[in-house]
Amino acid sequence: MKGDKDVIRALNKVLGQSLIAINQYFLHARIARYWGLELLNDSLYHQSIAEMKWSDDLIERILLLEGLPNLQDLGKVLVGEDVPEIIDSNLRLEKQKFAIITEAITLCEERHDYVSRQLLVTLKDGNEEYEDWLETQEDLIKEVGIQNYIQSQMGDDKAP
Predict the structure, then answer these.
(1) 52 labeled part of a ligand binding site
(2) Which positions does UniProt annotate for Fe cation 2 binding (predicted)?
(3) Dihedrals φ, ψ of 42, to 5°?
(4) Counting Cβ atoms within 10 Å, is residue 40 exposed (0-12), middle (13-18) or buried (19+)?
(5) Cα dihedral 148→79→41→99 (10° resolution)
(6) In CATH, which superfamily holds the domain spanning 5-67+79-153?
(7) Phi and psi of 62, rounded to 5°?
């Protein structure tokens, strides 16, 4: 089925953001693991995998619309050098993604592509959920202090 070229372009733009997120969140997860922050690693890794699944859905939709998924036009990965920077850089990416997804949803409504719109709404919902989680982490750091926050992210070192 031949899709609208502007919708395909918008889906590719969202895909590009999701591909950045996969790499950024995965790198941050591994940094957190290296620092011994197992709980933070688990959360960031989980989000990286969620982004991968959403990217797969976007790729399938673009192909169905007879478009070519763009996996080459990658933007900049924001790398945090400490825990607050990691959370802040992920939050900045989520806000950027939110704007791009919202713009794509509006375009899909204008072009009457409600299937693509629904896919994007699902991504937007996941985006908002992760953005809320990141904001909560920032609030926790402010509330309990960075040292206590870091200690809380180390996990339980007792054997099961």
Answers:
(1) yes
(2) 51, 94
(3) -60, -45
(4) buried
(5) 100
(6) Ferritin, core subunit, four-helix bundle (1.20.1260.10)
(7) -60, -45
- Residue 36 backbone class (left: φ over 0; alpha: ψ -120 to 50; beta: rest): left
Task: Give the integer Cα–Cα distance in Å for 94 and 28.
Answer: 14
Residues 54 and 18 sit within 8 Å (Cβ to Cβ):
yes
The alpha carbon of 33 is separated from its chain's Cα centroid by a whole number of angstroms, namely 19
Amino acid identity at 89 = S
Give 49-79 pLDDT, tens digit per residue: 999 999 999 999 999 999 999 998 788 999 9
Residue 138 is labelled as binding a ligand: no
- The answer to whether 28 is a known ligand-binding residue is no
The residue whose two tokens read 């050098």 is: 81
- The radius of gyration of the chain's CA atoms, rounded to the nearest angstrom, is 17
66 is in an annotated binding site: no
Cβ neighbours of 65 (radius 10 Å): 18
